[in-house]
Design a protein that fits this description.
alpha+beta, Neutral Protease, domain 2, seven-stranded mixed beta sheet, 19 helices, 23 strands, 38% helix, binds ligand BES, binds zinc ion
Length: 634
């Protein structure tokens, strides 16, 4: 407190108040634009070394973040923090440390957090920040053993993207700044620690672990998990970490990982990160997957038992190129991460399951994009339909819509159709190679596209319309799927009262005479069937579908989600005990946010939404619980 005060006084005395005001104003504008307070142009971290103790009793990380920095003559270094307690700041190398003055910005922005300003000299190139996390450190999910698979050891994991790394590490939290990192951690001796870095494959009996990430990454990719973990090798530098009882199921589900890697490398060149492992997290994990380098964090709902949901893993693997190697410069350029990744994911899946299956995966997404685009058109931010976003002053999370993902991917699919696959593949491989280990803005991409593809081959393509306008352009690639047409028709005729269960059905032009059963269609085909049922199907019809096809008890999270959505809008309350238990267990935002939303919007089920959220909110990561609380008006 004392240091901060003195430092502020010095600051105010050294510049006139007008000058300070001006500097302060411009700082706030840049911060709002970049979602970071850091003065990275003047001084920026090159290497971060963490020394931390993981304390499950206090649910706290404590220690020091040592920043080795490149200083261009700055006399202050500004870091981002949010929900951290700063105990002391020093400059200089370990054992030669000198206390430094620091100040916390007095404005704590609800989205950005606070600036931590450290007084330095123009020769300073190491800043050491002694700190501890608090209950407001939203990246951290501390789980009681009851919420794990074994139910007898606690678990901790972090989620850094988009701007939550600053809630567990004081850091210059902008995706344009790449750093290498290392860490020395002390954890309870019965648990294993893993990071987005070189990892152990066995527990250390003293609970001491050392990590290195020697390739420069944006700091939203720094990640940590601590739990009762084991490792299974899947071959070809791939493998899986999980709780012991999930090992067999995980090794089966993701057996194709080496093949995915081969397919990916064939497309866009050698994998840059040596090792590619998965970490199966507890159910509270708010995403399907998170592409932390060398160690994708994955949701256990992917363990469907039939490999039907592995495209999420293809997606996270693809991020090893699009996102981790070539990174969006700001969160406005998020589509460069996700759109490219969805496109790439689909190319990998084409190799693994063939063109027809991959087309169906893409079509499921396209259907979602169309719905999202309708929503965005009438929302208060219709310009969110652009690929290049303007998230100034907003939460970068707002950019996480199907526009970045699916419109982005269909932009590339349409471009591919226009230039031919061969040229497209050469172009993308050279794009990843040219920009590797750097951050790229939409403008950089457009320039490269013009230079290396469009001008080179005199191709006319409406990229401006795709990138800077809302809606789905008319030239968007159309995907046809015969099996989807079939299940759509089946949904319509069922709703109209036709018996679809007995007699013959035709599939791929063949007459099949068995009664309708689950095995006749893929998970994606069933999802499409459920989606094309009316919003308010009579309960007796919902029940007869359930009696024959058992959607309510099908333990495939995608099917459960789609079916429960339909059940809520149709007031088919027989699902309630199952829906409640799903919401009590799964924390993946993509599923539970829309479920709470439709529950809440329907008068019949509104009270359930409130009661169940109240009962289960402690089971969710802050990313999910904050989004749901907002939707429920809490
Ligand atoms: N990087 C994202 C997750 C993310 C994005 C977290 C923005 C925080 C902010 C990840 O790769 C992702 O897209 N996950 C999807 C998978 C999917 C589209 C296949 C998910 O979790 O649903
Ligand atoms: Zn992604």
């Amino acid at each position: 407190m004392k240091f901060e005060y003195i430092f502020l006084l010095i600051l105010m005395a050294s510049c006139g108040t007008k000058e300070t005001e001006k500097v302060e104003k411009s700082r706030i504008t840049t911060a709002a634009q970049n979602h970071s307070y850091a003065n990275t142009d003047a001084i920026h971290t090159k290497h971060l070394h963490l020394e931390l103790e993981v304390d499950f009793k206090l649910e706290q990380l404590r220690g020091v973040a040592r920043h080795k920095m490149e200083n261009h003559g700055a006399n202050e270094a500004i870091f981002d923090i949010n929900g951290l307690k700063i105990n002391k700041v020093t400059t200089g190398t370990k054992s030669n440390e000198v206390d430094a003055n620091f100040a916390l910005g007095d404005l704590k922005d609800p989205i950005l957090g606070q600036a931590l300003t450290v007084a330095i000299t123009e020769n300073t190139n190491q800043v050491n920040i002694y700190y501890e996390t608090t209950s407001e450190s939203e990246a951290l999910d501390w789980l009681d053993s009851a919420l794990t698979s074994s139910k007898n050891k606690p678990f901790l994991y972090t989620q850094g993207q988009a701007i939550l790394t600053r809630t567990w590490i004081p850091i210059q939290d902008a995706p344009s700044n790449r750093i290498t990192y290392s860490a020395d951690l002390k954890v309870p001796s019965d648990l294993m620690a893993v990071m987005s870095a070189s990892n152990p494959t066995k527990k250390n009996p003293e609970g001491i672990y050392h990590f290195e990430m020697n390739q420069p990454i944006p700091c939203y990719l720094i990640a940590l998990a601590v739990g009762d973990l084991v490792y299974g090798d899947l071959g070809n530098h791939t493998g899986v970490y999980c709780e012991p009882e999930l090992l067999k199921a995980s090794m089966y589900e993701f057996e194709d990982l080496p093949n995915m890697m081969e397919a990916a490398e064939k497309l866009y060149g050698k994998y840059a990160w040596e090792q590619y492992d998965l970490l199966i997290l507890p159910y509270s994990f708010p995403f399907g997957g998170m592409e932390n380098p060398r160690l994708t964090f994955a949701n256990p709902t992917l363990l469907a038992g039939d490999r039907s949901l592995v495209s999420v893993i293809a997606h996270e693997l693809a991020h090893s190129w699009s996102g981790n190697l070539v990174t969006n410069e700001t969160w406005n350029d998020f589509w460069l991460n996700e759109g490219f990744t969805v496109y790439f994911e689909n190319r990998i899946m084409e190799e693994i399951i063939g063109k027809r299956g991959a087309d169906n995966l893409a079509l499921v997404e396209f259907f979602e994009l169309e719905e999202e685009m309708e929503r965005i058109k009438t929302s208060k931010n219709p310009e969110d339909g652009h690929l290049f976003l303007n998230l100034k002053g907003r939460n970068p999370d707002d950019g996480m819509t199907d526009v970045a993902y699916v419109k982005g991917a269909f932009f590339l699919k349409t471009l591919e159709a226009a230039v031919g696959r061969e040229k497209m593949d050469v172009f993308l491989a050279s794009y990843f190679n040219h920009f590797k280990f750097t951050s790229v803005s939409t403008e950089d991409f457009v320039n490269y596209l013009n230079q290396e593809l469009l001008k080179k081959y005199a191709i006319d393509f409406n990229y401006e319309e795709w990138i800077y306008h809302t809606g789905i352009p008319d030239n968007c690639l159309k995907i046809e799927s015969q099996s989807f047409e079939e299940v759509k028709d089946m949904a319509k005729s069922f709703a109209a009262g036709k018996d679809i269960f007995s007699g013959t059905v035709s599939k791929n032009k063949k007459e099949v005479s068995e009664p309708l059963n689950r095995e006749q269609y893929s998970v994606q085909e069933w999802l499409t069937f459920i989606r094309h049922l009316p919003e308010d199907l009579e309960s007796n019809k919902m029940k007869s579908l359930d009696d024959k096809l058992h959607f309510t008890t099908w333990t495939n999270a995608e099917i459960q989600f789609e079916w429960y959505m339909k059940a809520i809008s149709s007031n088919y309350t027989a699902v309630n005990p199952y829906l409640k238990s799903f919401l009590g267990k799964v924390g993946r935002r993509k599923f539970i946010l829309p479920l709470y939303k439709v529950l809440y919007e329907n008068e019949v089920s509104r009270q359930n939404a409130l009661d169940w959220f109240n009962e289960f909110k402690g089971n969710y990561h802050a990313v999910s619980s904050n989004s749901i609380a907002a939707v429920l008006g809490l």
